[in-house]
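Homework-ish question, so no full write-ups if that breaks the rules, but can someone show me the predicted structure for this set?
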Amino acid sequence: MIDITRNYDVLVVGGGNAALCAAISARKAGATVLIMEYAPREFRGGNSRHTRNLRCAHDGPTEFLKGSYPEEKFFNDLLNITDGNTHEKLARLMIRDSVDAPAWMYDHGVRFQHIQGTLGLAHSNPFFIGGGRALLNAFYNVARRLGVKVLYNSEVLELEIEDGTFRSAVVRSRGFTHKVQAKSVVIASGGFQADIDWLKEAWGEVAENFIIRGTPYNRGRMLKDLIARGAEIVGDPRQCHAVAIDARSPRFDAGIVTRLDCLPFSIVVNKDAERFYDEGEDFWPKRYAIWGRLVADQPDQVAFSIIDSRSIDLFMPSLFRPFRADSIRELGRLLALDPLRLERTVRDFNEAVRPGNFNKDELDDCATVSLEPPKTHWARPLDKPPFYAYPLRPGITFTYLAVKVDECARVVMQDSSPAENIFAAGEIMAGNILGQGYMAGMGMTIGTVFGRIAGKEAAGYVCR
Amino acid sequence: MSVAERPVVQEARRIMEVCNACRYCEGFCAVFPAMEMRRSFTTGDLEYLANLCHNCTACFHACQYAPPHEFDINNSRVMARLRAGTYEKYAWPGSFARLFRRNGTVISVATAMATALLLMLALTVQGKDIVLSLHQGGGSFYSVVPYRLMLGVPLVMVILATVVTVVGLVRFARGTGWNVKQLLDPELMWLAARNVLTLRYLGGSGDGCNYEDDTYSHKRRWYHQILFYGFGLCVLSTTAAAVYEHFLHWQAPYPITSFPVVTGTLGGVGILLGSAGLFWLKVKRDPRPQAESLLGMDVAFSGLLFLTSLSGLLLLSLRETRAMGVLLVLHLGFVAGFFITLPYGKFVHAVYRFAALVRFADEKRRNHPGNGIF
Ligand SMILES: Cc1cc2nc3c(=O)[nH]c(=O)nc-3n(C[C@H](O)[C@H](O)[C@H](O)COP(=O)(O)OP(=O)(O)OC[C@H]3O[C@@H](n4cnc5c(N)ncnc54)[C@H](O)[C@@H]3O)c2cc1C
Ligand code: SF4
Ligand code: SF4
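A: Not a homework solution, just the prediction itself:
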């Protein structure tokens, strides 16, 4: 039995990667630790369950990474994708600390795959064998051996904060409400993407058509509570990682398998059967994160990626089989689009394609001429039946609205003073680094780096 | 395809399609790389994949879609169920396939009958006095069971078992849509054999496999290898004894320090430890990623190996006493039971798995020419 009337040194809110990194680090620094995880044991670990890699700087090849990924390059990539919308000091701290993250993870039971290179991430992102759930199993096992206590089915509802100092938390655990005291708290409870009402406040009614790719438990309760208690906020509630995924996905928790990699080889039309963006602008890993927004801006937040049999084997398979028809007109009918309009859109596109040397691994010269919007690479006429279509909707990975933190991962209050015993890590503070945009592996790197810092600092606060 | 098999095949196909869209488990074993070479899965493909699976259960514990998630992905279990189905489907002669059902009972009954028969024969033909009296020195075993019988019967049984197994193997290779000739490619055989000898895929991601829970352990690999090499030593010992006997005309029992006795003892102890260990793991294991229908087969097989080895070791230590006659008959009864049921029990896993590994080596080579290592 876990005694929650006891005054723990460190209370950790959440049970994902950031939470576990914090809990293990705090325990190793000598503190007693209690984890409160909203989800039941089978669904523990939040969005981290769905991950498969993280991004790390390194100077030379390792067993799991090719070549090198210098800190400066990492930083420049970050500047690029966020358009400068990052906190330089925190970003550089994260990048520096990412260097020894894989070794630390390995020491705590995480195993990595030997280099694959399929995703073009072989220089920067080591992949976990078995994905995020295997990583979490390893961390939970280490935590248990170290004596960290874990309570599942336990949602933290409120924090009691006096003069910038955390005193206790109100928790609903297995149906009962308790007050739990602790000397310090690490909040690693994720973003607010699973709270559709909150998304609607930011996006309007269109959010009703958003699919949440990860855990249904990240409802932003802690974020809201911290805002109410005077924590300083960074970021914009509309900023998030949003990709175009298969519209047939369940509303929550479908994870990676409903993503679609066919877009660059297709044309994408909205429900009026019109194209609306250059599908071949750049390599897919560099573009997938803009398509969630693009689809969100279309009527009814829906779109269709259309390909012919020439391209059907060029991308990773996904969960749902595509719609299939022998003519574009018939495909239009299957998708409940205006068949004649779809036919015209495809005809216009086919006529605008200029011949080139198709190469899916290069920015090739297959492009359209005088077509609006253009398709600048991998454009080939859609004329080889059968034709296929995947329906698309915006899939929200996680939100960026964040509590501001300092270099010790302390939550900064509105008067700019850091709260002395309140720390935050992971999605809930990711917006400090990601003002906008995304690069693969950032979510786990932010959680691992700031989780470790938060755990160590929280224990340091208690034990000093 | 038998009617009972269909839902399993469908479920395996559904799961493989989800896994192929996910691929997070690709570092665990050969199943996932083999899956990635395909976009759709015929029944034969699935049966082949099922026989590449070692039921290490790592992919169950690592799966973000494992039940109670609505996708309900339990790959370890469906692979085990499908694998059991292939043993039945490709068994030869076909009418014997039923022996794979209630396999525990089949094996116990067959062994009991073989033992009882032998005992009765020995008692009626040789007489109670001979069976129960003291025998010593060279040829003492043969005063209980005549030499011809002791050599001839096992020889016939081994030949029969081999024929039946090889036919099953060919049926499996063909039925799963593969070119049987590839089975004989020496390079591929060597690559596959290397994986078997080290039991590489039970190594998982380097820390062993899951068994009781989501922690990794090398226990299963170790017990299996002790059993495997113990069995090998026993085969060696028996072969050596037969050579001594037949060609050197040197009659058993042999001295304690002789080659057959030393290898036989070591092998016997290995089998005892290995089969007991595997049984113990079975008791403790997490039932969720398992096919419970396989339990009887597994337990009967390791149980029979255990008893064969135990009776052999007892025979060795008590061969100078009056108990020898009965122990010898018992031991031979277990050995007979083992060989009679060999092609219709757990043993076939070794054969099908080996064939699947050869095919995997073949596919790897085709997909990455010039790269024989995997
Ligand atoms: C499909 C998918 C794939 C992804 N792939 C990658 C990838 O490969 N690499 C990468 O870097 N990132 C990836 N991400 C992003 C990544 O998952 C997150 O950025 C990262 O896991 C965040 O970790 P975290 O610990 O902050 O949050 P989470 O792992 O989401 O953990 C939050 C935890 O808090 C709990 N919680 C929430 N509210 C409360 C409360 N009030 N009380 C108690 N507990 C609460 C939740 O139950 C959960 O356990 C992916 C995301 C998705 C959805
Ligand atoms: S078992 Fe689960 S985690 Fe592993 S590849 Fe299949 S779907 Fe993915
Ligand atoms: S149970 Fe083990 S051997 Fe079988 S498919 Fe899963 S990971 Fe591979």
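Now go work out the reasoning yourself. Hint: Chain A has a mean pLDDT of 95.
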